[in-house]
Amino acid sequence: ESKRMRSHASLYVPTLEAARKQQLSLLSDLQEAVAQNQLRQFLQPKVSALDGSLRGVEALVRWQHPVRGWLPPNEFVPFAEHTGRIRQITQWMLERAVRTLSTWHAQGLQLSLAVNVSTLDLQDPGLVGRVASLLKEAELPAHLLHLELTESGLMAAGPEPIQVMHSLHELGVKLSIDDFGTGQSSLAYLQMLPVHELKIDRSFVDGVNFDARRQELLGSIVKLGHSLRLTVTAEGVETEAEMAILRNAGCDLVQGYLVAKPMDTPAFEQWREQYRP
Ligand code: C2E
Ligand code: CA
Ligand code: CA
Ligand code: CA
């Protein structure tokens, strides 16, 4: 019996050790990721709930790790937020987004592109200046660049980001509240924010067609957004049944696998050329 316990322990310790080593190596790898150009921009369309027309695009980061392969953001973004490395990722995504927007703009396409930013970015006094100079260098109308901020991140950050949000708004950049419904913000708080869009969290959409009470809840969130004069977007729409409910509820835009999964930039361009709503 004691032998079995020992062998159990000797199996357990190296596993913890390995996990720590993996985290440490991820930290040093993350420094390399930007320098070695291992980050990628994936794009997912946002379409009108009424007629399916393409209304905007969201940029989502991917990391093509030399050893571990494609890493989704949940495997490194929280970690990068913890270590402060997220600022370099955000800057890379902003530069990449502005390049994509410039291409579209040159083609006469009035498509917006939304970049996800973390609360740490909003506490960075250099952010507004960097966004302003990127837009100026590219001679791009600021309203084409959108920034998505999670409701829970905003609530955790306290009042400081609000000033930064106002500065971004004055630049002409549009702001969205992401994962709405999960962060417990108050109406008074929402009313204070210079935002143009609420993105309803996927958890409210998933399987909503099977539950009348959740349908009502979804309807109330859409009404709340509209009473604040905001565009209401639903994320994670996977089925026609969910889509129909959102359309009936008056939701403005939808995003999700039903329309398209996030794609790398060339695949998105192909999708866009073939897309017929
Ligand atoms: P998010 O901003 O809420 O992005 C939506 C996530 O839902 C994306 O996951 C997307 O691939 C996924 N998704 C889209 N449609 C569907 C659907 O129909 N069904 C399901 N099940 N999922 C769908 P992804 O790309 O893995 O990103 C996860 C989260 O990581 C994002 O959530 C965002 O919070 C964060 N993130 C992604 N890119 C960035 C970035 O560049 N910077 C920062 N700070 N965070 C990022
Ligand atoms: Ca988002
Ligand atoms: Ca979201
Ligand atoms: Ca999310």
Topology:
Layout: H1 2-35, E1 39-48, E2 54-65, E3 69-71, H2 77-83, H3 86-106, E4 113-116, H4 119-122, H5 127-138, E5 145-150, H6 151-157, H7 160-171, E6 174-180, H8 187-192, E7 197-200, H9 202-205, H10 212-227, E8 231-234, H11 240-248, E9 253-254, E10 263-264, H12 265-274
Parallel strand pairs: 2-4, 4-5, 5-6, 6-7, 7-8, 8-9
Antiparallel strand pairs: 1-2, 1-9, 1-10, 2-3
Helix pairs in contact: 3-5, 5-7
This protein binds ligand C2E and calcium ion (CA) (3 copies).
Residues 178-179, 199, 235 line the site of one calcium ion.
Please provide a written account of the structure.
The chain has twelve helices and ten strands. The chain has helices at residues 2-35, 77-83, 86-106, 119-122, 127-138, 151-157, 160-171, 187-192, 202-205, 212-227, 240-248, 265-274, and strands at 39-48, 54-65, 69-71, 113-116, 145-150, 174-180, 197-200, 231-234, 253-254, 263-264. Strands 1-2-4-5-6-7-8-9 form an eight-stranded mixed beta barrel, surrounded by six helices. Helix 3 (86-106) runs parallel beside helix 5 and helix 5 (127-138) packs parallel to helix 7. The model has no long low-confidence stretch (mean pLDDT 92).
